[in-house]
Amino acid sequence: MSKRRRKVLKSRIRSPAVRNSGYSDGGASWQKDALRSWHPLRLSSKSDIDANLTTLRNRAADQATNTPLGSAAIVTSTMHAVGAGLRLFPRIPYKLLGLTADEARDWERNTTREFRLWAESKECDWRRRNNFYDLQSIAYATYLTDGDSFALFRRANPSYITSYTLRIQLLEANRVSNPLGPAAMYSEANAWGIEQLNPDNGNHIINGVEVTPDGRLEAYWVSNKVPGDLVDIDGATNWTRIEAFGSCTGLPNMLQVCHDIRAEQYRGVPYLAPVLENLKQIGRYCNAELTAAIIRSFLSIFFTNTQASNSLDNILPSAYGAPDDDHAGEPVVDAAQYKLGPGQLNSLPKGVDVKTVDSSNAQIAYDSYMTHLEKSVAASLNIPYEVLLKCFSSSYSASRGALLQAQDEFKTRRRWFAADFCQPIYEQWLMEAVATGRISCPGFFTDPVKRRAWCSADWFGPTMSILDPIKDVNGAALRVKYGLTTREREAAEMTGSDLEENLEQIAYEQALIKNLGLDIGNPEVLAGSSLTQEGDGEENEKSSAKQT
Length: 548
Known about the structure:
Blueprint: H1 3-12, H2 45-48, H3 53-66, H4 68-81, E1 87-90, H5 101-119, H6 132-146, E2 149-155, E3 166-171, H7 182-185, E4 195-197, E5 204-206, E6 209-211, E7 217-223, E8 239-243, E9 254-257, H8 276-297, E10 301-305, H9 312-315, E11 352-356, H10 366-380, H11 385-389, H12 396-435, H13 448-454, E12 457-460, H14 469-481, H15 487-495, H16 499-515, H17 523-534, H18 537-547
Antiparallel strand pairs: 1-12, 2-3, 2-9, 4-5, 5-6, 6-7, 7-8, 10-11
Helix pairs in contact: 3-4, 4-6, 8-10
């Protein structure tokens, strides 16, 4: 075979194409037209979060303040997760501590009363503006809006109202920042000024959070005012370094309420960050539609001249004695002489007609389009659409499902907040109460296991709305019957009340009814009859639909 022939045969034999596996033909494809120009980068948390934090925080605050949907997201989460404040329920493992059940109950009741003495007073606030439960609401709303919130432990002399020295000072999130300002932090390696070095110890300062070279939290840098604030009269902006933990106790000197979403993250991301663009576009769309609706609501009337355009007066006005041109640009008639009103009769001059502007072309797709956008925002925030918009127009089952899903979201955030804010403050307070002898906790300062046991507590907050109280109460009764929960927990979660106080009050009311000789029926019988009459909410819904 000739050389030429072999060359032709070789050119016709094609080697098999190499095909990649996994995501190569899917989300990682570089060949598909839809993905060819898509080149996102996932860098460090400092590049992805900290470099954009100021912009995110400013835009999130604007949406939470000036738009209905952004405000609803913050207010709804704050109301259901914290509400009027999380309440303390001490739960000590009394067997570990060598106590009986009655002794443990007495200790818990006494500790709760003593804590209320401090928490319900505005003296617990460094600024003397709010009590402990109000501080919770402020800290939680700030955490959602700014991405994190900070609380500083302070001390003040005891007063007539409270015998404790512990005070809580809430801080604006943007007061925790890098010292000396962005100009001093700028470098070629760090163009955004997000990270700088502490020359005294070589630690890294990332957006006001100082960490060791290997990433351990060391301190916070807090300015005396919000950097760049022109209204504050405190003079030049100065920063104070606050150790994150006490050198002797190891307890925190400052709390950061934050939920990390990255492994090496030190500052929080605003709650509205994933939906900021959608919220802004929704706001613009709503404003545009509102303006259009207002314009369409106006009744515009135009007076027109119906005289023939080929009359001699119109063709040669100056030659045939027509009026001069001084009034040529004026309206055909004086609109002030005519009125709009019920039964109003107006006589127009000869040759004058009236025309109106049609205002009936409203945007018929507005509602469905807005509903779709609002649902996408609600899904991104992990809040059911019905709960976010306070719109329960679906069936009983759908509304109940939305409430249960929302309850899971709010309970999770409540646990995060209690662990970051409420529990550390309670532990600081309890340490002072034990040190001053107001509460007895044997082994508190000598055994860390016992100290943790004495500090054990639950935090219960507001409950979700109940669509069918009888059904929920029956479910709670069954959970208690089969040992899945306790009466005390059900009372706290369903009504936010204390079981022991409820039973004591019920006993008092029953004794009072008996002493007064009244007969108002057996509560259990009345509850049973109500159940027979009311029935299941879903069954009522089905029967109503059948009748319709």
